[in-house]
Structures are given as C-alpha cells and as structure tokens.
Automatic annotation (TrEMBL):
Matching InterPro entries: GntR_C (IPR011711), TF_FadR/GntR_C (IPR008920), Tscrpt_reg_HTH_GntR (IPR000524), WH-like_DNA-bd_sf (IPR036388), WH_DNA-bd_sf (IPR036390)
Name of the protein: GntR family transcriptional regulator
Domain HTH gntR-type: 9-76
SUPFAM superfamilies given in the database record: GntR ligand-binding domain-like, Winged helix' DNA-binding domain
UniProt source species: Lentzea sokolovensis
Pfam family of the protein (one): FCD
SMART domains: FCD (SM00895), HTH_GNTR (SM00345)
Origin: domain of life: Bacteria
The keyword Cell inner membrane belongs to this UniProt entry's keyword annotation: no
Transcription in keyword set: yes
Stretches assigned to coiled coil: none
Keywords: DNA-binding, Transcription, Transcription regulation
Length: 220
C-alpha cells in the first residue's frame, strides 16, 4: 500500500479555531450552549464542519456533548480542577528543571512576560499567561514534554478563564508581578526557588477556583 496525496486542512479545523477563539475571548462562557444551527449561520458554513469542529473541541476538553443537552462549553468540576492542577504541576517541574539545567535562553520567556504589560483585560492576560508557559516549555527543549503540555493546554486556558470569571480583583497587576518574579528566579538559576514560585503561581488560581466563592459542584 502506498500513501496518497496529503489533504488540505479541512474546513472543520478552521471552524474549530474560530469557536475556540470565541470561547477564549469570553464569547461563550463555560456552560454556554453551542448549537449547530446557530453556529453554522453565524460562521456561514454548513452544519457538517460545525459538527466536526465540536467533536475536535470535545477531544481537547473544551466542549462536552450530552444527548439530552447537546454541546456546551465545558464547566470544570472539582475533580477536573484538581487533576489539571496536579498534572500541570508535574509537567512544570520537569520544564523548569530543564530550563535551568540546560542554561536555556530566556529571551522568549522574558518577551512573553513583557507582553503582559500591554494586556488591558482579564481575557488578554489569560492569553499572555498561556503564552508565557508556552515559552517555558519551548525553552525546556523536550519535545514529548511539549506534546504533553499541548494535550492539556486548552483545558488549562479554560481553567484560567474560569478563574477570572470568579474574581478579577487585582488580577492584572498580580499576574504581571508574579511573572516578573518567575523570570527573575529562572535568571538566578536556582531550581528550588524557581519551583517554589511556580507552585505559588499555580496555587493562587487553584485557591480561587476551590474557595467558597469558586467551584463547589460535585466531582465528575
């Protein structure tokens, strides 16, 4: 058997990108219905690509589909939050260790932190936060570690969107300050100190999500 010619990127992938961006911009908050008919009309495509897009986003963990409710933007349960936080933490330990141990360039990480100075809304800041961690994984120089991060990246983005929906009090400056400190810790080359600050950074979002004001529903 021989392979055939490569297919061009499908319309479903483009539709998935547009729906994903709308979710990340806050246009479709967690729990929002994603109706095929409405989406196909808004995006001026047939329902087939929309259906394909929703399946793709379901695999990413951004969308949940239930026969009696249809497709909705995923709402994180306590178990979702705990699992994402613990897995993200485990991945970041290896990423930070490698960045420090290999003496990796911190230029892209620093640039990502500097970009936060221009973020003016919580959703813009969440994007900057994700971009910062993208840069950390890239600097780690470990392709399978990067793939593991990319597998949960959309869900972590949803995690952070959920966090800012619950509280934005002092959020923008807090995130700027935390990431300035993270860059400084990486520059010092102190693994223990850097890991401590990365853990504290994750804990702040986790605490908001699991406080009495946060997620209190049943585990999935």
């Amino acid at each position: 058997m021989t392979v055939g010619p490569a297919r061009r990127r499908g319309l479903g992938s483009e539709v998935a990108d547009m729906i994903r961006e709308a979710i990340f911009d806050g246009g479709y908050p967690p729990g929002s219905a994603l109706r095929e008919v409405e989406l196909s009309e808004a995006l001026r495509v047939s329902r087939g690509p929309v259906r394909d897009a929703l399946r793709s986003l379901e695999r990413e963990g951004l969308v949940r589909a239930e026969w009696h409710r249809g497709a909705t933007v995923a709402e994180l349960s306590l178990q979702d939050v705990a699992e994402l936080d613990s897995l993200r933490g485990a991945l970041e330990v290896l990423a930070v260790q490698r960045v420090v141990a290999t003496g990796a360039s911190l230029d892209e990480i620093s640039a990502a932190a500097a970009e936060m100075e221009r973020a003016s809304t919580p959703h813009e800041m969440v994007r900057c936060d994700i971009a910062f961690h993208d840069a950390v994984y890239a600097a780690a120089g470990h392709s399978r570690l990067t793939q593991a991060w990319e597998a949960i990246r959309s869900q972590v983005h949803l995690f952070l969107i959920t966090r800012v929906r619950l509280s934005t009090d002092g959020y923008l400056e807090q995130i700027r300050e935390e990431h300035r400190d993270l860059v400084a810790a990486l520059r010092l080359g102190n693994v223990e100190g850097a890991l401590k600050l990365f853990a504290e950074h994750r804990a702040h979002a986790f605490d908001v999500l699991t406080s009495t004001r946060g997620i209190t529903g049943p585990k999935r």
